[in-house]
Design goal:
Elements lengths: L1 E7 L3 E8 L7 E9 L14 H20 L4 E6 L1 H4 L4 H12 L4 E2 L2 H16 L6 E6 L4 E6 L6 E5 L3 H8 L7 H23 L6 E5 L1 H9 L14 E3 H13 L2 H5 L6 H4 L2 H14 L4 E5 L3 H26 L18 E2 L4
Parallel strand pairs: 1-4, 4-5, 6-9, 9-11
Antiparallel strand pairs: 1-2, 2-3, 4-12, 6-7, 7-8, 10-11
Helix pairs in contact: 1-3, 4-12, 5-11, 6-11, 7-11, 8-11
Length: about 350
């Protein structure tokens, strides 16, 4: 079947269309995205302003039209930290639903970490052993660790590149004192989470995922995205440590000229690099391998798992004959399994 995932993130609204069926990897068919940078549109109350909400409604409506045009059967629509933490988050959800017919499911930070971990586990397989997964988004940093498909520990920290840029780095290029203050803040936040993971032992494989890590790996010498998904890409801590002061001295325009850095994300790259450097240092990671799958793929994979469970349950019911119906599979950790459809 053709599925769509509509991800309303802190930086972008991204519709990913995939051809998928249980037992096979999802094959990307189409990608449609618009940069809104909701994490940078919060007012002094922490609310998303009227203009930002109007843009969000229009963007979601456009994405649903694209999904229909591409023959998508179901759209899994969800939102992450920007709406989750906005003071007027419920109002925003209601406005989107009235304007588009789409009710966004708001993922918790732990949901984000778990679903991203699932995607990484499926990408690397069981041979990767104990995985440590780091994911820097626009609004938050997710960290997860474990041996199985569900992590043994998963946390979300308010250390997204967009959020921190808007709050801590107003200058272009930023003032040295502001960079130092953000570095201290980020490391203090990460350090509070480290003991929960340290008790679980060292990872066999450390992974970074999502846009910030891909860009940092690219400027550090990793292969281009055009070289394909299956080329190994890594980010070494010693390389990142060399790049942080260089990024701090650059304007956003100069950063956007670096390989793999988009104009829309250039301003946020320094904050993302400071968080990445702090996380790699405090978790004692010398090298991260970059995974091309992340949260959106995790949502799709869990949806397919639910479908397998429903088919198996129906088969058991038929085999058992008349009698009480078996309960369907509905993992409590998958709020994103709700399906949004464009109104008729």
């Amino acid at each position: 079947m053709r599925l769509g995932v509509l991800d309303v993130g802190s930086n972008t609204v991204h519709l990913l269309v995939v051809d998928a069926h249980p037992g096979a990897r999802p094959l990307p068919a189409y990608s449609h995205k618009a940069e809104l940078r909701l994490a940078e549109l919060l007012d002094v109350r922490g609310a998303i302003g009227g203009t930002g909400v109007d843009r969000l409604v229009s963007t979601v409506a456009d994405a649903m039209r694209v999904a229909e045009d591409k023959g998508v059967e179901d759209v899994l629509a969800f939102a992450t930290s920007a709406i989750r933490e906005a003071a007027n988050g419920e109002e925003v959800l209601d406005r989107v639903e009235r304007g588009t017919g789409v009710r966004l499911t708001v993922l918790s930070g732990a949901d984000e970490a778990r679903l991203t971990f699932l995607a990484v586990r499926r990408w690397f397989g069981w041979s990767a052993g104990r995985l440590l997964v780091l994911d820097i988004g626009g609004g938050s940093l997710e960290v997860a660790f474990g041996m199985d498909e569900y992590p043994d520990a998963a946390v979300s920290l308010p250390l997204g590149a967009g959020r921190l840029t808007g709050s801590w780095l107003p200058g272009d290029p930023p003032a040295t004192a502001d960079v130092r203050a953000l570095r201290k803040h980020a490391r203090a936040e990460i350090a509070r989470a480290v003991p929960e993971f340290a008790r679980l032992g060292r990872p066999d494989h450390a992974v970074g995922t999502s846009k910030t890590f891909r860009q940092l790996a690219r400027i550090g010498g990793a292969a281009r995205s055009a070289d394909g998904l299956y080329v190994q890409r890594t980010l070494r801590r010693e390389v990142l440590e060399e790049w942080v002061p260089r990024l701090a001295a650059m304007s956003a325009a100069r950063r956007s000229a670096l390989p793999g850095v988009s104009e829309g994300r250039a301003r946020q790259l320094l904050a993302g690099a400071l968080v990445a450097e702090g996380a790699m240092d405090l978790f004692d990671v010398d090298e991260l391998e970059i995974c091309p799958w992340a949260l959106r793929e995790g949502v799709i994979l869990r949806k397919l798992d639910v479908m397998v469970g429903e088919v198996a349950s129906a088969a058991r019911d038929r085999a058992a004959g008349p009698g009480p119906a078996a309960s369907s599979v509905a993992p409590e950790d998958l709020p994103a399994s709700s399906v949004a459809r464009r109104p008729a």
